[in-house]
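User: Sequence in, structure out. Go.
Assistant: Echoing your sequence, followed by the structure tokens.
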Amino acid sequence: QVQLAESGGNSVQPGGSLRLTCAASGVTSDYFAMGWFRQAPGKEREPVLCTGNNGDSTYYADSVKGRFTLSRDNANNTMYLQMNSLKPEDTAVYYCAARTRPFTSAQIMCLVTRVDYWGRGTQVTVSA
């Protein structure tokens, strides 16, 4: 059973930066796609950044292009989300997600209905 644990959430001022970490354990599949989602109060969960099985493709939500970067340490099944130039509208609970099936592109990984595993989330608050 795959388990995902997020860390790094915090309260920051607009324009600040945060780095989120997702540590995965219990991974036995050869196929392991990962991604970040977020959910703001009163809104649906939405994709932020995702990678495919080999970590070689990335899907960006338009609202974070140029500000957020995803990286992976495949040897340690760890994923990072570097968030720069944070805005109040980035306030949300950020979730790590994973899918352990073949032929998973970043686009598929970024579909809420295709996620196999979820972390518990970490709160990011951006306010003055």
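User: And one key feature?
Assistant: The radius of gyration is 14 Å.
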